[in-house]
Fold this protein.
Amino acid sequence: MNIAEVLTPERTCCNAPGVSKKRVLEFISTFLEENTDFIDADDVYHDLLSRERLGSTAIGEGIAIPHCRVPGCPEITGVLLKLQTPVDFDAIDDAAVDLIFALIVPDQQNDEHLQVLSSIAELLQSSEVREKLRNCQSNDKLYQIATTGH
């Protein structure tokens, strides 16, 4: 699945506030509510937090992919953030996180969910792509790199 199918320029944020993991999850929830017609920020925040309690979604190299299932969500919906300040996300490599690709997933889309997670992980495995994302200074450029790799 192509990342552009789940991410929009409006749901891409360069230099998002980063204070703590919980504050980042709150920001994601509010940002989603502001940029979709079907998200309730409180519900999404609690769902993301519940998922994090099962185990950190930080995958190393300063990257986290928080995700959760949301009843009533009509489609897989992504948010990409580059944080102003890296935060502790309980990563396996103990690296602070500054790149976050969050996903909100409908209950019934198991295969698609795994395909999107795989696409995101594949994109972010590239040290060149990570460096380009970290050097972005605009939402548009962040979106462009995430959806094209350059």
